[in-house]
Amino acid sequence: MNRALCAALLMLGSSIATSGDVQAQEQRPYTIVGDSIPNSLTGAPGDPARGRAIVTNRQNTCLLCHAGPFPEEKFQGNLSPDLRGTGARWSAGQLRLRLVDARRLNPATIMPSFHATDGLTRVGAAWRGKPILSAEQIEDVVAYLATLRD
Amino acid sequence: MAAAYAGEIPLSERKSGYALMSRDTQKMQDDRTANPGTLWVLEGETLWSQKAGSAAKSCAGCHGNSGSSMTGVAARYPAYNTTLRRPINLEQRINICRTERQHATAFAYESKEVLALSAFVGSQSLGRKIAPPADKRLTPFRNTGRDLFDLRQGQLNLSCAQCHNDNWSRRLSGAIIPQAHPTGYPLYRLEWQSLGSLQRRLRNCLIGMRAEPFEYGAPEYVALELYLMSRARGMRIETPAVRP
Predict the structure, then answer these.
(1) Pair B88, B81: CB distance under 8 Å
(2) CATH number, span B37-123
(3) At A106, phi and psi to the nearest 5?
(4) Cα–Cα distance list, A21 to A17, A44, A114 (Å)
(5) DSSP character at residue B47
(6) Is pLDDT above 80 for B6?
(7) Hey, do B14-21+137-243 and B37-123 end up sharing a CATH topology, with the first three levels equal?
(8) pLDDT digit string (tens) for A42-61?
(9) What percent of chain B lies above the pLDDT cut of 70?
(10) What domain range includes position A119?
(11) Helix (H) / strand (E) containing B200
(12) Which of B158, B166, B210 lies closest to A124 in CB terms?
């Protein structure tokens, strides 16, 4: 094998290894038990106040489809259940799986998988290979939704 | 013309985006003097009779002064082009006349000129029913368009059909989801503060889904246009329409 090709293969190998590492940082491994992910993706509890800010930030798409207890938000969607009371209906683990990859519960759901990058088609360049929300953001949102008890 | 595809909105329940918008926006569309699209139509009428290119010919030179020879044309586009062996939309047809008959350079997509000319030609079909040609050569392209309409894509993993067949009339945040009928293009969108083509609209939806948009003029967009026109067959042309 010639040296240039060797070098090229080495570089390719290391770039795959690095992108693997980046992936591992962005998308955390998790274990599904029944209809839930019982353990925190980060190993730590999330922050409900940050979670509320994530849910109401238009960038994160929740309010495209959902409404909820957000009197200050003029535009809220009605494609899906109101978020009021979700903390009473579901455990933290169930909410976590619903957010991470709702397809696991209902393959036909229109709710995006917020912490998964597999099985997607024609993802725009800016978003390719990245989960919509980071593990920390998922935990913050879970902590917030758990507070919505009525 | 093929029967409705499975999962489609029944013909009797179809509604233009017009039916879902506010009374004020409807009035703006209906009143020619209040409709901002009229400016583009008038500009198109001027371009229609201007000589252009090294052939020094105008559109009117071949098609007559009034543009009335264009009546019904927008209602049956995209149409099959024998030379290219694929369907072309109205903007592409206008540009083929530009380059091949007038020997002028093609207009860029979304340029003021091509929007003006397609608005002028489109407005000649105002009130006419959409009547896609019964040309068998179009069938595979229309099927490609339907497949794209049903394809879940982008980071949000949504399909056009999930919003426009399954959830029309619901609220996506502040916007009411229409049925996605291409009846009014090019149209004036208040959010754009400009006229825009159907492909610009499709591009907006793809970006909203966080999918990779196609290049303007791409065969995928023309296939989608073809499918949308067949899905809207029998509905009336509103060009130039107004939308929120």
Answers:
(1) yes
(2) 1.10.760.10
(3) -150, 100
(4) 6, 21, 20
(5) H
(6) no
(7) yes
(8) 999 999 999 999 999 999 99
(9) 98
(10) 3-21+29-147
(11) helix B198-208
(12) B210
DSSP secondary structure, A12-64, as one string: HHHHHHHHHHHHHHHS-----BTTB--S-SSSS---HHHHHHHHH-GGG-HHH
CA A140/CA A92 separation, integer angstroms: 11
Distance from CA of A103 to the nearest CA of B (A): 10
Residues of A in contact with B206 (CB under 8 A): 124
Share of chain A above pLDDT 70, in %: 83
CB B169 within 8 A of CB B163: no
Instruction: Determine the 3-state secondary structure of B243 from DSSP.
Output: strand
* CB–CB contact B155 A132 (8 Å): yes
Structure tokens at A137: 């953001």
Q: Domain spanning B14-21+137-243: which CATH class is it, in words?
A: mainly alpha
Can you give the CATH number for the domain in which A78 is found?
1.10.760.10
Whole-model pTM? 0.92
Query: For residue A1, is pLDDT > 90?
Result: no
Q: List the beta bridge partners of residue B102.
A: none
pLDDT band of residue A69 (cuts 50, 70, 90) is very high
Q: Encode B190-224: b = buried (16+ Cβ within 10 Å), e = exposed.
A: eeeebbbbbbbbbbebbebbbbbbbeeeebbbbbb
Closest CA to A93 of A148, A142, A44: A142
Give catalytic status of residue B205 as yes or no. Answer: yes
| Residue contact B210–A122, C-beta within 8 A | no
Count of domains in chain A?
A: 1
Residues B157, A122: C-beta atoms closer than 8 Å: no
Identify the bridge partners of residue B81 per DSSP, sorted by sequence position.
B86
3-state secondary structure of B153: strand
What pLDDT, in 10s, does the model give residues B31-53? Answer: 999 999 999 999 999 999 999 99
